Amino acid sequence: MASNDAAAAAAPGRGGQAAVVAELPDDSKVPPQVKSPPPNPILSICKSLVAGGVAGGVSRTAVAPLERMKILLQVQNPHSIKYSGTIQGLKYIWRTEGFRGLFKGNGTNCARIVPNSAVKFFSYEQASLGILWLYRQQPGNEEAQLTPLLRLGAGACAGIIAMSATYPMDMVRGRLTVQTDKSPRQYRGIFHALTTVFKEEGPRALYRGWLPSVIGVVPYVGLNFAVYESLKDWLVTANPFGLVQDNELSVTTRLACGAAAGTVGQTVAYPLDVIRRRMQMVGWKHASSVVVGDGQSKAPLEYTGMIDAFRKTVRHEGFRALYKGLVPNSVKVVPSIAIAFVTYEVVKDILGVEMRISE
Question: What angle, 0 to 180 degrees and rounded to 10, lies between the N-to-C axes of helices 64-75 and 86-102?
C-alpha cells in the first residue's frame, strides 16, 4: 500500500509534469518555544487605548497655556475687553494669577482628553478597517486600499464617537478654564463642576453645545487623519525630497505632517468651536469673562440654539468674531496635533502593537 501511495505521488499530472508534493510540517512536532502565541485581542485593544491616552495627555499639557488663552478670547464679552491678544493675554494671566494660572483647567482638560484621545485613535483604527471592508465588497474593489476620502469618513466617525463619549467633561473644562479668582461662582474641581451644573441647570446642560461640536468634529478630526495619513503615504511612495529612509519617515517629518493636518482641520472647523464654547457658557450667569462690568450679570450670553448663536455673534460682533482666538489656537494646534500623532505611534512601538493607524 505504501509503494502504491509513493507511485501515485510521483505520477505525472494532467500537464505531463510530475506533481511535486511538499511535505507540510506537523505542528505537533514543532517545539513549544518555537511556536509564536496568537495575539491577545484584549491586550492589543488595551495597548492601543493606552497609546492614545498618553498621546492626548502629552500633547495637551505641552500647549495648555495657549489652550486657556484661546478659550478666554473666545468667550470674553465685547463690551468688557480684558485680553487684546495672545501675548498680552498670557502676560496678564502671569501677572494676575501666576504660573499656575497658565495651566488652570489643564487637569480637567487631561482628564477629558486622555479618554477622548484613547477612544478617538482606537475608533479610527476600527472604523478604517470597517469602511475598507465595506468598500472592498463592491465589484472591482477587492484589492482597494484606503483613499483620502475613506480616511476622512473614518476620522469623522472616530471624532463623533470620542466627542459624544466625553462631552460633559469638555463642558465643565471650559467653565473651569474661564473662571478666575474674582468669579462669584467657584467650581472646586471636575466632580464639583459636574454635580453643580447637573443640579442647578439640569442634565441637558452637560450636553449644551453638543450639536455644533459634533458638526465641527467631522471636518476637524476627519481632515486631521485624512491629511496626516495621505501626506505620509505620498511621501513614502513618491519620496519627493529624499525624506524616506528604509521605507520609514523620520520623527521630524511625521511632526511636519501632523502640523499640516492640524492646520487644515482647525481652520475649517474653528467657527463651530467658537459657537460651541459660547453655548457652554449659557446659564452660567456668574462667569466674569462673559458679562459686562465688574462681575455683575448685566449682559450675560444667551442663545436659544446653534443658529441663534451664529446669528447673534455675527450681528453684534461681526464675522471676524467667529475666528476669535484663532491665533493662539493656530500656534497651539501645530505642535499639539503633531505631538499627538507621533507620540501615539512611538508609544505603540514601545508597547509592541503591530497595527499602525496607517494600516
Answer: 120
Task: Identify which of 85, 76, 83, 89 has the alpha carbon closest to the alpha carbon of residue 300.
Answer: 76
Full-model pTM: 0.68
Closest CA relative to residue 131, chosen from 118, 117, 144: 144
- Give the separation between CA 107 and CA 113, rounded to whole angstroms: 10
Residues paired with 244 in a beta bridge: 249
Compute, in degrees rounded to 10, the torsion defined by CA atoms 131, 137, 139, 145: 40
**Are the C-beta atoms of residues 128 and 150 closer than 8 Å to each other?**
yes
What is the DSSP pairing of strand 244-245 with strand 248-249?
Answer: antiparallel
Q: Report CA 99 to chain centroid distance, whole Å.
A: 27
In this predicted model, what pLDDT tens digit does every residue of 303-353 receive, in sequence order?
888 888 899 889 888 888 888 878 777 777 778 889 999 999 899 888 887
DSSP state of 202: -
CA max distance for the chain? 103
Range 39-351: architecture per CATH: Alpha/alpha barrel (1.50)
The owner of cell 450667569 is: 285
Sign of CA dihedral 70, 74, 75, 78: positive
Fill in the amino acid letter for 173. Answer: R
